């Protein structure tokens, strides 16, 4: 009777280890989705810029590639849908991997960010000819995406160690710095003048965030001993 009980306990223990190993595998796959999302976004930006002959990536915004009238919209549309799906998957993985409440909230915010970004892509895309409600909603969605981005960086930093907090602060400074420099070009945009450096400044913000996502995803990578 005792031997049978021991065998049953051992079998239950082995089943638990196998289930936990599979659980960790799912988390790793979801975290890798975060890495893949940043790589996909960067690659799509670069390839789309090369496809548009008259597009100067140093002087024009990334969103121009996705505007309704852009010749690159059809090329960039599907990859950005995949990007948002990958970010949602990352948020799921972060929530599953949560080691404290702040990291769990970060996962939820990442999922909301992906949904709002998808909404902007499908329902309220950039349209330079749009007026009224549609143009306003595009600005609202864009503003919401920016707020959500700062929120998930902030909560992740709060729930992580000192080194990652410092890195997150540097990232936020780069994002704000790039956005500020890009914003200084608004008068030239309104005057329909050339905007040298606009694309570089905007991409400084975007790529700083993309790199942060990769570092954050890998910082949550579970070991086999856990």
Describe the structure concisely.
With 226 residues, this protein is mostly helical.
Commentary on this structure:
The model has no long low-confidence stretch (mean pLDDT 88). The protein is mostly helical. The protein has helices at residues 2-51, 73-96, 101-122, 133-158, 162-183, 186-190, 198-219. The radius of gyration is 21 Å and the shape is elongated. Helix 5 packs antiparallel against helix 7. The protein has one domain. The relative contact order is 0.13.
Chain-wise SSE layout:
Elements: H1 2-51, H2 73-96, H3 101-122, H4 133-158, H5 162-183, H6 186-190, H7 198-219
Described by strand count, sense and barrel closure, the largest sheet is: none
Integer-rounded radius of gyration: 21 Å
The tally of beta strands, per DSSP, is 0
pLDDT < 50 stretches: none
Distance between the termini: 33 Å
- Beta-strand content: under 5%
Total of DSSP H or I helical runs spanning 4+ residues:
7
| Coarse shape | elongated
Arithmetic mean of pLDDT: 88
The helix fraction, in percent, is over 70%
User: What number of structural domains do the residues give?
Assistant: 1
SSE sequence, one letter per element:
HHHHHHH
Alpha-beta content class: mainly alpha
State the main characteristics.
226 residues, mainly alpha, 76% helix, 7 helices
């Amino acid at each position: 009777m005792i031997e049978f009980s021991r065998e049953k306990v051992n079998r239950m223990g082995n089943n638990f280890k196998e289930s936990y190993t599979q659980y960790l595998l799912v988390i790793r796959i979801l975290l890798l989705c975060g890495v893949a999302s940043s790589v996909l976004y960067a690659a799509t930006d670069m390839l789309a810029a090369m496809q548009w002959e008259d597009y100067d990536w140093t002087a024009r915004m990334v969103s121009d590639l996705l505007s309704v009238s852009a010749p690159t919209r059809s090329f960039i549309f599907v990859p950005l849908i995949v990007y948002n799906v990958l970010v949602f998957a990352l948020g799921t993985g972060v929530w599953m991997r949560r080691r404290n409440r702040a990291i769990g909230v970060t996962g939820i915010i990442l999922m909301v960010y992906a949904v709002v970004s998808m909404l902007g892509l499908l329902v309220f895309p950039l349209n330079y000819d749009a007026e009224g409600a549609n143009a306003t909603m595009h600005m609202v969605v864009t503003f919401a995406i920016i707020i959500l981005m700062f929120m998930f960086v902030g909560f992740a930093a709060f729930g992580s160690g000192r080194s990652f907090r410092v890195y997150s602060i540097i990232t936020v400074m780069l994002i704000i710095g790039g956005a500020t420099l890009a914003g200084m070009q608004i008068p030239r945009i309104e005057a329909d003048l050339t905007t040298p450096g606009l694309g570089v400044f905007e991409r400084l913000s975007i790529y700083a965030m993309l790199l942060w996502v990769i570092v954050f995803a890998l910082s949550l990578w579970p070991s086999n001993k856990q």
